[in-house]
Amino acid sequence: MAAFASAPGAVRGRAAVVAVGNTLQGELPGMSADEIGVEALRVTLQQSGIQKSQIDGLITCKSYGGFGIDTEIGRLAGLNPAYSATLDYGTCNFSLHLAVAAIEAGLASVIAIVYGTNQRSAGNRFTLPLGRQDDASVYGFLNVAGVAGMAFQRHKKLYGTTEADLGEIAVSQRKYAIDNELAIFRKPLSIDDYLAEPYLIEPLRRADICMISDGGACLIVASADKAAELTGTPVHVMGIAQQTGLRDRQNADQWMRPWIEQVAERIYPAAGIDRADVQALYIQDPTSVWVMQMLEWYGFAPFGGVGDAFRSGAVGFGGKLPLNTNGGQLSEAYMWGFLHLVEMIRQLRGEAGARQLEPFRVAQYCSTYGMLKAASTIFSLDRS
Amino acid sequence: MSAETARAEVSTQTPYLPTEDDTRFWQSAAEGHLLFQKCDQCSYIRWPAAGVCPECLSRASTWLEVDGVGTLWSNVTYRRAYAASLKEQVPYPVGLVELDCGVRLLTRLVDLPHEGAEVGMALTVDYREVGDHGVVPVFGPAKTVLPAVPLV
Ligand SMILES: [Zn+2]
């Protein structure tokens, strides 16, 4: 054991994911965002055998256009849960951590986390400046890839990273996506293909940026007692950690997102494991640059060493540490990170079909909310 | 649609409308001056403009002209127009400049050498028209001021 169970964020199996589900991804015309979310809930209940009446908590995540509010989803899904809440920015880990906190406080014991979006059909072209609408609008600094592109351009200068190094991320994830029927991009992508793509926001290319999608996802999180009643294969939440950088550009090097390091320092003691115990890794990826940064801050690759980490087989497709085995948002679909967790739970339970890895028991999920917050969770099939 | 989302959409399709907080910044810039709020209590220089000092939470501040010099934190070049109003501007370079006064400011880069911008390069402010926004601060390579040579 790397730390005592009293470490901050040491959940140690007092909450577990008991079911996951998703809708199709891509274009789902004719359904509202909230209907897509409820469809994900329906599928998840049906596949898990959990009854709607057993749900006593609802946590939703606001989606493009202002949809996804708990009061609306609750009405549409016919739920009167003991507890409900909405996060503006679920990005999965944040919604999950809120569910864990509500369970720890005894506000609810079986919580459905529901996300649905029709942003593709509704015409979100991902053109909004992130955060404040000030100088970014004046200078045309739009899309998260603008920020990520600047972070990568500086990284190139500081560490000698090349575009071919960065390309390894999209190339590895595409190899997984080829076996994923849900994925929007399944055409093979080599490093040469990657480098031949034109820049969208130089130094980033199409394959570095996620694909907007309609779709929904659902997770059901339960207290340890309820989890044991609801499923034979709960995936235990062992540790959670978060850190914000809310001061934004008042912070130095904000877009290198140095506050991720504080999550990295907390998450392994929280879970009571060492980084080397992680057997599969999931990193939320609106852009490939975010994957590069998190691999470095969490210590899975040295700074400037991400390209080598893939080429040497340390991480990625066919490597020692599998990474984003669904293809991630770069190849599968942009679902604010929810599908990473759906995939990870299925992999841990041996339900990942053509993409199934060798059996493993411990996985980590790392995500961020844009340039402002970071979070991580460690899961295990074993409570201790 | 939430008010926040509505505002965000408007901001990319029409010229950015200054807020009560930052009107002074844009108006001064249009006249060739770079001004920020300096906290009357703790001297912190603030950007984005706001009604409160993020260091000491005081509301008292004075607009102060600063030297328009700094270094390039990083840069990108937009080759795709992510809004209709940008179609005639692509490709265009955007940089984040770290001003000597401590403020980090987004900007357009101008008058770059053939090899382009370089992270860490020294920059000096200039004032140019950008899109529909009128004259705004932009930054280009620092101008080397040669020491005066006495006439013989
Ligand atoms: Zn102050």
Task: Offer a quick outline of the entry.
The complex is a heterodimer of chains A (384) and B (152). In chain A, 33% of the residues lie in helices and 18% in strands. Chain A is an alpha/beta fold.
**Shape-level CATH architecture of one domain in chain A:** 3-Layer(aba) Sandwich
Structural class of chain B: mainly beta
Number of domains of chain B: 1
Q: So how many helices of chain B?
A: 2
User: Which ligands, by name, code or SMILES, are bound?
Assistant: zinc ion
Proportion of β residues of chain B?
25-35%
Proportion of residues in helical segments of chain A: 25-40%
Q: Tell me the number of helical segments of chain A per DSSP (H or I, 4 or more residues long).
A: 13
**What is the straight-line distance between the termini of chain B?**
72 Å
Report the CATH superfamily of one domain in chain A: Thiolase/Chalcone synthase
Largest sheet of chain A: 9 strands, mixed
**Order of neighbouring strands in the sheet with most strands of chain A:** 3-2-4-7-1-8-11-10-9
- Shape, per Cα inertia axes of chain A: globular
Q: Determine Rg of chain B (CA atoms, Å).
A: 18 Å
The rounded distance between the terminal residues' Cα atoms of chain A is 9 Å
Order of helices and strands of chain A: EHEHEHEHHHHEEEHEHEHHHHEE
- Provide the CATH top-level class of one domain in chain A: Alpha Beta
> Which strand-content bin applies to the residues of chain A?
15-25%
| Assembly classification | heterodimer
* Tally of DSSP β-strands of chain A: 11
The computed structural class of chain A is alpha/beta
